[in-house]
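Q: Here's a chain of 436 amino acids. Please give me its 3D structure as tokens.
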Amino acid sequence: MRKALRYVKAFGKWLLLVVVLAALIVGSVEYFFYRNVSQNDLPVWQPVFGEEELSPTEYHWFVPVAGRHLGRTFSMDKKAPAAFPAVLTSQPKLKVPAAARSRLTLTGADGSEVFSGTAEEYSHFSFTQDGDYTGRLELSSQQDLRQSDAAPTGSYAYDFSFRLHCSPTLTVSTDTAVQGSVVGVRLSGVLGTIPPVIQCDLARDAVFAPVDGDWVCYLPVDYNQPGGDYPIKVTVGGHTAESSVKVRGRGRREQDSYTANGTAAIPYIGKFPKKLQEVLTIADPDIYWSGPFTQPVSGRVVRDYAVLEYIDRIDAATLAVAPELAAINETIAPRRSVNVTMAVSPGRKVVAPAAGRVVFAGNSGEGGRTVVIEHGCALKSIIYLLGKLNVSEGDSVAQGDVIGKTQGHVICEMRLYDVPISPWEVWRGHGALFQE
């Protein structure tokens, strides 16, 4: 019995020694790793606000050494915020690492909070006015102590201040525009939601539509607009942006029509119908169309846009044998076509060239059964001389929807505000209306 007790005591001492040695070894290993953990083990995150890289002004991190119960803590007390140069865009971009949770808070000079949310939420935010701002960006690890035994957990804070001084940028679709075309105007970097105001002799009260954070409007160039330079001045939020466009003439085109063969009797609409005058004042501050328009109906063109049409002019062959008749031609004034007249077989479908809303559907008097579609920004499709109407005023139409049927000749017209523009450029997707 005593011998057994001696063995037990000896084993106990040996076991205790093993435990102590194991504890010393484990402790030494943990101490070694503990001593070798440094700030270099913290995540390297380099967020960017605007054009500036942010440096931490405060942080608190826990780096595990042996599971989540033993680790080393690193922290830095708050430093003074960084001051950035003036920011010249209405929405400074924010870039944060994908591995981090984010929270951005922006405060105005009066101490009021103008934004608080994630980086994703900030991507949909725009400042409403210039001024001085302070920002605080907080980035934290995706996991916490209860979820990870190995990865560092904690957060960085980045404090900064900046002055927002946003000057809008004016872009014009072309330097030179031909008569009958359209000039696009885009204003970028605009603060707030108040539309800009434009001054230009091509269209003094053009309406702007919001597009992808910018403002866009369109200026018509009349078929007889005098050539020369036209200044463009846009004002918004106390800022002014200026540009100009040069207008040049369209090639002269003439057409002869005669009473004897009936070509002079082809329906003609030169003066805009009085019953539609109020329609020209409609200018929806939206862009309903997307991409090229569809030609509303196919047919033989008997009178094209911007053609000078002479009725019963003495032809060249007759003048060759009777030159004294030339004086008669000098008394014949041409009439200008502001639309496209087509000969079409009765019963053909006429479709909406693009999406929009029907602002007139009825008898316009001189134009017979007429449909007018507002496509947004005062751009309108006008179809005269229809045999049947398939839409009513107030209807919304999509591109290709049937709006009526023909009874013979059809006259198609495109107007931007009260100015007739070339339908062909619109139908073929050419020019400023289709530029990004």
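Q: Can you summarize the key feature?
A: Residues 24-34 have pLDDT under 50 and may be disordered.
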